[in-house]
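Lab channel / #folding
Pinned by the channel admin:
"Please post every new chain as: sequence first, then the structure tokens as a reply. Keep commentary short and put observations after the output so the thread stays searchable."

First post following the new format, from NK:
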Amino acid sequence: MTPGEIATPARPLTIVHAITRFERAGAEENTALTINHQAQMGHRVLLVCGKGADKEMLATLDGGVEIVEIPDLVHPISPLCDLKALGALRQLFRTLTVDLVHTHQSKAGILGRLAAKWAGVPHVVHTTHILAFLNVGPLKRLIYWVLEKLTGFTTDAFIHVSPAMEQACLSAGIGHGKIHRVIYSGMDLAKFKTAQLPEDAAEILGGFESKPLVVLMLAAFEPRKRHQEFISVFGAVLRQQPNAVLLLAGTGSETPAVRAYIKNLNLTDKIKLLGYRDDPEALITLSDICMLASEREGLPRSVIQYVAGGRPVVATALPGLEILIQHGSNGFLVPVDDLQAMVPHFLGLMEDETARVEMGKRSADRNLEAWESQHMVAQINALVEELVALKT
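Reply from TO:
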């Protein structure tokens, strides 16, 4: 089969992908790629998600994909809504005679797998884009661990976005005796190698007499990304390097709060909120340093893109990032609970153009073949075929 050619399945399946929120973020982009490939192969594919899915994200799906909204599938813990969503999922799976349920994100992962087991779905897969019991308080950690442990028994196969996610699962006693696969989050990386500056670069950097030192963060605006916490840290950078500007690209529930926080600090001329952008490769080309301040993640797609775009990266030491960022070589990793530790790294890179260029080159030279989209979908397809063969 030639690269890009779509394989024909031995038997068309009815496959349901369940995800809590279908917004503009990494897990959703990963899921959309998988869904589209399976639909193009000839499977009947449905996306099940909570109410309020992003319309532009839905527009990226293949025309043959069926979309089902379950209003009670909500992100916060809500016993009444959760029970209603569980019943609705079970009824849907039984009505459709589903062959395989593939769940994503924590809430849909728990409810979707329980409903699949209840409905007698023969094959159940879960992708650990993130583990909810990591880097949270003791009570939440216990609750999420118990739920993940229980639903682990209903799961035939786990897909992990990094070896660290797999190890965290197994170390926590989740999914022992089940199939585990590390399948990296796929994307089109070629465009990050050849990107040009964004068409509105002058508008983005308007107000500066000369090009400032640009720090970029690509991240959905949600609490675990810690935009406000990092803005406080960036204030310390600005006091010593006033020729810097921070670009924040993304959308989410935290946007109004972050905007107000920037205004209260009187930093609106130094910190720009760009909203959702469909040209991350161009923004990376505009940047001098890329960063991420997340408290917990799987393996962030944005960091893969930073590396593909040939930029030095400053980020929190999330499990798995050491695969991409070699501390002191193409970037710096700081403790998750110490964002202030980023300050000397930013200042050092800002003051040393040679170091920035050399680190960026080391990023550009990294082999990222494992994160190519065709590699991901081929591996997921092989796993599905393996599961079907096991129970045929």
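NK: The chain has 15 helices and 13 strands.
TO: also worth noting, The first strand starts at residue 14 and ends at 19.
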